[in-house]
Amino acid sequence: MNASRVTEIANAILYEGYILYPYRASAMKNRQRFNFGVVVPQAYCNAGGSGEISSLRTECLVRGDAAARLTVRIRFLHLMSRTIEPAEPGVPGEWQEASERDVGLHAVLGELSADPVQRGFHFFAQRLVHPAGASLTVRTQHALTGEVEVTGHQVRDSVFRVRVRVSNTTALARGEPCDRDDLLMRALVSTHAILQIEGGEFLSLLDPPGGFEELAESCSQAGLFPVLAGEASDRDAMLASPIILYDYPQVAPESAGDFFDGTEIDEMLALRVLTMTDGEKAEMRQVDDHARQILERTERLSALDLMNLHGTLRNPRAKDADR
Predict the structure, then answer these.
(1) Rounded to whole angstroms, how far apart are CA atoms 121 and 105?
(2) Of 84, 268, 269, 315, whose Cβ has the fewest other Cβ atoms within 10 Å?
(3) Is there a contact between 235 and 196 (Cβ–Cβ < 8 Å)?
(4) What whole-number distance in Å separates Cα of residue 142 and Cα of residue 79?
(5) Closest CA to 194 of 73, 104, 107, 61
(6) E-strand spans in 12-110?
(7) Distance between CA 311 and CA 298 in Å, rounded?
(8) What's the CA gap between 231 and 229, in Å, rounded?
(9) In whole angstroms, what is the distance from residue 255 CA to residue 266 CA?
(10) Regarding predicted confidence, which is higher, 141 or 263?
């Protein structure tokens, strides 16, 4: 597995939609954030909360012997509310930052049918107060509890169907939360899974080998969609993403950094940032480190850097045609 390539695309998914152009907290699109891979507490759904889900599930096919070892990593953002007390001019009164969370487990492929693997996880609440000039920066994070379950069974000689399910089991006090921002503070956000196999190989569900088409179609997905990841010759890693991707997704090598939009056009966004007024740039700097880094990185781009962003064409089927 090309770990760096898998991690690069997984990180792009992790921060998809974190903040969007015009990269200011006052922009409407940055008041309604985090629309992918959101897993809310089951208690909220049980109480009649609509439009949200409390678990995600993915299924994929693995070819290998019963002794093959499976590693599953669930990754998501755990949101943190940041407030400035008292409020400062030009600084967002409240902003949702995020901590990266990673939950891993291991399993033996042939044992999953009789002995599914489960792992619960818990991240504690915290409140951090830091002096910032004449003000205080207060960061508040609610507790988060969940569970990962991995099951599997043999569907053909040396072929297993593996299912991964992640659930949010965070308890809610009566009457909370009251709006989506409160709900997000208790949610798993941008949730995705990285699966790795030792002693076997994953089968593509988008372009399955001959004779495996029906098995591929029988795999059920609920909010996570698995694709092969790494180099085009790799078969030992799958990325199950809340965003539908193709096999072996990658970040374009011309990209100088993340603009937090998976459908981004780097050249257009870079030019848009460069044409902001001084006041707009000042507001962008005050959002958080992510927004400030976008601005500083873009302002450092040379004419050659901008030229390299322009006019690149790729045929995603080129490698298939060469086979």
Answers:
(1) 11
(2) 315
(3) no
(4) 8
(5) 73
(6) 55-85, 94-108
(7) 18
(8) 7
(9) 7
(10) 141
Pick the more confident residue, 306 or 311.
306
Please, which pLDDT band fits residue 314 given cuts at 50, 70 and 90? low
Q: What pTM did the predictor assign?
A: 0.90
| Burial zone of 175 (CB within 10 Å; 0-12 exposed, 13-18 middle, 19+ buried) | exposed
pLDDT at 323: 47
Burial letters for 247-256: b for 16+ Cβ neighbours within 10 Å, e otherwise?
bbbbeeeeee
Distance CA 109, CA 297 (A): 45
Across the chain, mean pLDDT equals 90
Name residue, tokens 């597995």.
1
Span 75-90, pLDDT tens digits: 999 999 999 888 777 7
Radius of gyration of the chain from its Cα atoms, rounded to whole angstroms: 22
- Do residues 142 and 176 make contact, with C-beta atoms less than 8 angstroms apart? no
Q: Tokens for 184? A: 């997000």
Given a cut of 80, whether residue 54 has pLDDT beyond it is: yes
Quote the tokens at residue 203. 């089968």
Range of weakest confidence among 142-156, 192-206, 241-255? 241-255
Do residues 102 and 75 touch, judged by C-beta distance below 8 A?
Answer: yes
The CA-atom distances, in angstroms, between 27 and each of 238, 288, 294 are: 36, 15, 16
Contact 224, 58 (CB under 8 A): yes
Query: Which position has the token pair 């951090």?
Result: 128
CA distance 267 to 274: 11
Tell me the CA distances in angstroms from 114 to 56, 111, 150, 151, 154, one per residue in order.
22, 6, 12, 9, 11
Contact 239, 227 (CB under 8 A): yes
The DSSP H or E segment spanning 296 is: helix 289-299
The pLDDT value given to residue 315: 65
Instruction: Yes or no: say if 194 and 237 are a contact pair by the CB < 8 Å rule.
Output: yes
Report which residue type is found at 47: A
